[in-house]
Amino acid sequence: MSLLDAAAVVAILASLAVAVRSLLPRRPRRTAPPQQQQVADRFAVQDASARIRAQEELRQSEERMRLVLDAVDDGIWDWDVSRDLMVFSPRAASLLGRLPGDLPNLAAVRAVFRPDETLAFDGKIRGLLDGSAPFFEVEALVQMGAGESRWML
Fold first, then answer.
1. For position 46, what pLDDT does the model report?
2. Strands 77-80, 149-152: parallel, antiparallel or unpaired by DSSP?
3. Which of 94, 119, 96, 126 is nearest to 109 (CA)?
4. pLDDT tens digit string along 68-84?
5. Residues in contact with 81: Cβ distance below 8 Å, sequence separation at least 6, in sequence order
6. Is 127 exposed, middle or buried (0-12, 13-18, 19+ CB in 10 A)?
7. pLDDT at residue 62 above 50?
């Protein structure tokens, strides 16, 4: 049998398979028994309920945090180290003579310190990042927006 003959046989067999398949009755789509479907529906409702509860708990937690931050006169800031993004509360930024968006990253915060204070600041940051310091605390002379300096802790 030549290669062309073999290809013709394969094509004929494929055509026959398609023709036979079209003659066979189609099997009905499998559906879950009613009891299993009820369990699946209940799970979907419970899953959505859990998500909604978690969102509400998060909203309440954020509201409590906002109330605490509004009640104290402290400045709060957060640093996403992996992306080098900083967020300052309005009070924290105003203590530095800036607006909250003025200090978006570590380089911008370093620029607030007087040049002779940056070595100490950098050392405190290194200690925080390498785990040798349990917390971050620095007392330094900070350059305010209007050109004046102020001691900050």
1. 61
2. unpaired
3. 96
4. 777 777 778 888 888 98
5. 129
6. middle
7. yes
